[in-house]
Every structure is written in structure tokens, then in C-alpha cells.
Amino acid sequence: MQNLGTGVNRLRTKRHRIFHFVWRGVNLLLSVFVASSICAGVREYSVRRYLDGFSNAIVLNSMPEEQKLQGILDWMRAGPARATSENPDALAKRDPETTLSYSQLLNVCGTATNAFLNLARSSDLRARRLLLLTPDNNTKHVVAEVLIAGRWIIVDPAYRVIMKDAAGHYLTRADLQNAAVFAQAISSVPNYSRGYTYDHFAHVRLARLPFVGFWLKRLLSAVAPGWEEAIDWSLLLERESFFYLVLSMASMLSLLLLRAMLAWYADSSLRIPRFHLREHALRAGAAFFSTPGIKQ
User: Do 258 and 19 meet the contact criterion of CB atoms below 8 Å apart?
Assistant: First the structure.
């Protein structure tokens, strides 16, 4: 019996040590992600303030949507002189302040679309990116979709053009799948590639994920048809500061949930005494705001 009791105590001690190790690790990670969420939030706020000021200098919020759209493209086409870099590949391609400042990035479809989307959103336009794909799911061009009068019309920021037919009507990606309409739309755009067709497209290219990308897309399409259209992915994928903010917040919430589960396990199974932060905070708050009694 004594050996059995000793074995139980050793097992309990081992479980307690493992718990304390995990508990401290979770608390440390939680502290890191709380700090990173604050930093990412400050960064995202500063980026939004910058973009608001930048877009207000280009177009007025009181202007009609079509005029805002054309004003942004006119600025991209003939705006003020911009900086150049000897090594443009080293530039941050998901930083709005960078994409709006360097001429090389405004001439590449991906970063030009990034700059356009950030300006459009800051001008209260609903805009999202659209990837044009080859049959083997490689990206051949990047354009934008803008919601105008209830229709997602196509804008090509790299060529500074809104896609229109011969009659001047705005075109959607469904319209541009018609070869004759596509030919009309690009006829007035110098040097536009006829290979930038709309037969294959995506908002999120999961195929870039190694090993699981193809199967993950098929799974999402089977479980939640239209998942690409239901969620606006452009801001998350095109703005680095917002991506890190979402990642930090999601990690923080996950760790808070894990911490709550560990706390429940410690109280119900391990019977480990621990510091109850919430209870102590409530007591401190009650003591601070309560009126002290006066002795007679």
C-alpha cells in the first residue's frame, strides 16, 4: 500500500510539473500576442490615417462613385513624380505607403492593384482583387473588381482602365468571358495582352499552399460553396498591417481559450491552487469604488 501511495504521489507530482510548464508557456505566449496585437493595431491605425489623407488629396468623399473611380485611375496615370528604387524586388509589396510611392510598383499588376485597392477603400468604394489564372492555376494577371450600381465591374489598375464595351457600358468578369466583348474592351487599350482572359480566376489562390492547397480548396468548395465570394479576402491578403493584426488577434483569442481550459482542468482535476486574476481584479475594483465605512 505504501508503494502504491508513493507511486500515486509521484504521478501527481509529475502531472503538476507538466501542468506548470504548459501553464507558464501559455501565459508567456499570451503576453507576446497581446503585445503584438497592440503594436499591429497601432500600425494599422497609422496606415488607415495615412491612406485617408492620401485619398482625400486625390478625390473627395462627396463625389459620385464613378468619379472617385476615375479620379484614382487618373492619379495613377498622371500623378506627381514618384521615387524609384535600384532594387524594386526588395520593396515591401504589401505596404500601402511603399506601393503608392514607387513608380516601379505602380507599373506591376499585383502591386498596382494593391495601391488601387487601398485608395479605393479609403474613398469608401467597395473593391476587391481578382486573380486571372492559367489552366494550371498560375497567376497571369491581377485586376480589381469594384461594386458600382450593384455590379462588380472590372478595373485594371496596371493599365489604368475601366473595362467597357463598345457602347461604353461597364463590364463584369462574366461579361468578359465572352470573347467578342473582351475584344471590344481591350481594343482601345494599347499593348493589352489578349492572354488576360477570364476563363479561370480566383480571389484566393490556395494552390500556392504546399501539399494541401488543392485539396483545401476542393474541401471548402464542397462544404461552403461560394466561400470566396462570401468573405472579402482582399484587405487581409493585400494589406500587411491588417494581416498581422488579424493573425495576432486570432492567436490571442485561441490562447485565451486554451488558458481557460487549462484553468478549468487545474481546478477540477489537479486541484492546484493558482492565482485567480479575474477574482482579484473584481475584488480590487469593488474595494476601489466602494465607500469606506466610518467608525463611530
Answer: no
